């Protein structure tokens, strides 16, 4: 089970890191193709930074053993972001994006539950 959790954590970290870097480093006009115009660009850049920090928080606290409680907490926070993404994609009627975001949400919640249960 530990190996499966590491695969899940690594996958989540890679996805959040890549999406965060895309939103942070791409020019605003390219980011606008990915994100609804209703969100101001500073908010999108802030969200990108949080995704990058989240990708680090899903891996390193558990890996180093320094404050390992941060791993399930980070996964929980990223789950909240994913719920928000599902709401936004639903309102924008981007139905094709919902299954992928839903899978990420389930994987993130599995990491939350499993890593938290391992601590106690």
UniProtKB/TrEMBL annotation:
The chain crosses the membrane at residues 6-25, 46-63, 69-88, 100-118. InterPro entries: DoxX. Keywords: Membrane, Transmembrane, Transmembrane helix. It holds the Pfam family DoxX_2. GO terms for cellular component: membrane. It is a multi-pass membrane protein. It is found in: Membrane. Its main location: membrane. It comes from the Bacteria. This is DoxX family protein. The lineage of its organism: Bacteria, Pseudomonadati, Bacteroidota, Cytophagia, Cytophagales.
């Amino acid at each position: 089970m530990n190996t499966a959790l590491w695969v899940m954590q690594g996958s989540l970290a890679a996805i959040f890191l890549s999406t965060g870097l895309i939103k942070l480093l791409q020019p605003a006009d390219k980011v606008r193709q990915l994100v609804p115009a209703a969100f101001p660009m500073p908010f999108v850049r802030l969200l990108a930074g949080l995704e990058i920090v989240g990708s680090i928080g899903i891996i390193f606290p558990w890996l180093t053993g320094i404050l390992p409680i941060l791993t399930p907490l980070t996964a929980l926070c990223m789950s909240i972001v994913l719920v928000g993404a599902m709401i936004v994609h639903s309102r924008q009627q981007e139905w094709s994006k919902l299954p992928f975001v839903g899978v990420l949400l389930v994987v993130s919640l599995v990491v939350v539950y499993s890593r938290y249960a391992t601590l106690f």
